[in-house]
Structures are given as structure tokens and as C-alpha cells.
Amino acid sequence: MKLNIAVLPGDGIGPEIVEQAMKAVKAVCDKFGHELTYKEALVGAIAIDETGNPYPDETHELCMQSDAVLFGAIGSPKYDNNPSAKVRPEQGLLGMRKKLGLYANIRPVTTFPSLIHKSPLQADLVEGADFMCIRELTGGMYFGRPQGRSEDGNTAYDTCIYTREEVERIVRLAYQYAEKRRKKVTIVDKANVLATSRLWRQVSQEIEKEYPNVETEYMFVDNAAMRIIQWPKSFDVMVTENMFGDILTDEASVITGSLGMLPSASIGIHTSVFEPIHGSYPQAAGKNIANPLATVLSAALMFEYAFNLMEEGKIIRDAVTASMDANVVTEDIAAEGKAYNTSEVGDWIAGWIAKQ
Ligand code: IPM
Ligand code: MG
Predict the structure, then answer these.
(1) Distance (Å, rounded) from C-alpha 150 to C-alpha 152?
(2) What is the pLDDT of residues 60-110, one digit of tens each?
(3) Number of CB atoms found within 10 A of residue 139's CB
């Protein structure tokens, strides 16, 4: 098969982790005889520095022409500490999501037996936890307008907007996944306070009737935040709006042992994007210490979701598990003793794939 992918390393540790994921992608393509072509493009702070635009038109064109996008991370302290910056790296990521129509961000939360000891929760609570968080990605407060400041600068506002269509398509998607899984959907909102949440709940209650074989549960977001740490195994598919999903998935990722482990797939209208859920970790940039596994696992999702190549995805997943079993991992998840470099982990994984 011909695989034509866009590679967007971005900022901070982005380039290092994407490089490791690409080693795995190449190893898989060699092994299965796929013809891989890929091109890199700029996004984020580095794109602002070089072009003034965090998501240059050239990058968008490349994404549109590719079959899948592998994305690293964006963000830079240079902008975080400068609230008055007019252009921000995050606008690159948000612009990409919007322009590619990526309305669904799928974040599978799974545990790794060899990592359970790193979880802040008791082992019996997390062991076997396996749920999928579906985060709406192109609506809500991230995109609602108006957004800004009053003239005197002392009042600021964001706007949360959702339309029926936006809610329908994401909630339907959640039911479709639940049908293939353990047949339970948890709809997370704040319908006791927010108008947008009440629309979510109303629309969900209509769609719920179309899927009588799936159990539906409605939960307020504060309660969901609590339940993720109290009883993560009670979830199968969780669906929620953009900002709630952003927050809850960071929370969910650490119960599995490390934020450095969770991949994601953003799907929708145009080319799908595969990216780790963590950020650009600027403190570690260039040090060759960041955990590349979330990005390597994002590459596995890419084979599965963008190309329907399940065996290829599985071999990457197996390689990641093998690296953890062999303790060839970075410092954030290493057991007492030796930690490996980012690039050593990437090489080991690619080597493991080649040997199968
Ligand atoms: C994520 C990130 C982004 C988001 C940031 C970098 C804009 O936190 O993908 O979860 O909030 O969506
Ligand atoms: Mg986030």
C-alpha cells in the first residue's frame, strides 16, 4: 500500500518524539512492504518564528494532500509568559483542527501492567481500566466568538457555543464506538449550569433512543473528574465537549502511570491527525529524555484509523509493551535503576519490529 503522510514535529520535544515514531513507522513499512512517502512542515512557535503564521498555508496544503498527519507538540514558554502576544503557537494547532474539520478527538485510556506501580492510584483500582474518551474538538469555548477584552483591559470574555449538528455528530460517533466495545456511553456535561450543556443533554437524549442496546449514563463534569480517580473501570466510552475533554483526558492519562503514554486520533472531515495528548515539555527539549511512547502509539493509531492496517498497528503496540517489559524506557517511567534516552527507546522499538 502507498502511504503518504505529513509530519509536523512542532515545538519543544516535538521533533525528538516524532523522530522516534517515524523510526517505528519506517520499520513497519519495511516489514509489510508498504511504500512510504512523507514530508515535514512547520507548525507552532517555530512556524511563527519562520513565517509569522503558526499554521502556514503551505502546511495546510500539505496536510490536505496527505493521507494522514503525524503531529508532535506545540507551545513555547516564550508565549506562555506573554499574555499580550498577538499570535500564539496554540492557534496553529487550533487552526489546523478547524481547517481540517477534525471534530472528534479520540483518546483511548488503557493501562499497562508494567506501569501500574507508577499510577497514583491503588493498583486494584486501575488494573484493567480501559475506556475511550471522545472529546469534541472544533467547538465550545476554544472557538466561540466573541472572545477578548474590554477597551480598558479589565474585563475579559470567552464564549461557549454549540449547535445541534455539532452535538449530534459527536454523540453518534460515541455510540458507534460503544456498540463495538462494552456498550456503555457516559455523556459528560454541566447541564445544571450551562445552556450549551443542556443542549448536549437534550440532543443526547434523542440520539440515545436510536441505540437501545447501549447503556447511557449522564454525568456532570465535576462528578466525572471524581469518578475517573475513584472508579475508572466504570467507564467504556465517555463523550464530552472540547474544554471538559481537554481537562479530563490529562487527568485520565496520569492514572495509567504517565502523561507520556497516551496517544490520540483526531478525525473528521479532511485528513486525520495523530498526536500525543501531552504538550511540548519545553524543559526537556533537546535533552533526549522525553518519553516518545505516546507518539509511537499515535503512529499505531494512524495505521489503524487512517489506513485500516490493523496488524501494522498491533505490531507497534506490541513493540511498546515489549520495551516496557524489557525496561527500555525513559526516566519518567523507568523502574529503579537505568533509564534510556528518547532515541535509544526509538531505536529499540524499531529494532524489535524488524525482528518479528
Ligand atoms: C491538547 C492540548 C491543546 C488543547 C493545547 C496545546 C492548545 O492541551 O491537545 O490537549 O488544549 O487542545
Ligand atoms: Mg490538553
Answers:
(1) 6
(2) 999 999 999 999 999 999 998 887 888 999 999 999 999 999 999 999 999
(3) 22
246, 249, 274, 278, best to mutate for ligand 1 pocket (most atoms within 8 Å of CB): 246
Measured CA to CA in angstroms, residue 347 lies from 178, 186, 351 at distances of 36, 39, 6
What number is the average pLDDT over the span 259-275? 96
pLDDT confidence band for 118 (50 / 70 / 90): confident
For 300-349, what is each residue's pLDDT tens digit?
999 999 999 999 999 999 999 999 999 999 999 998 778 999 999 999 99
Task: Provide the residue type at 92 as one letter.
Answer: G
Query: Residue with the nearest Cα to atom 5 of ligand 1?
Result: 90
Which whole-number Å values give the CA distances from 52 to 42, 58, 86, 87, in the listed order? 11, 13, 11, 8
Alpha carbons 166 and 53: distance in angstroms, whole number: 28
The answer to whether 23 and 346 have CB atoms below 8 angstroms apart is: yes
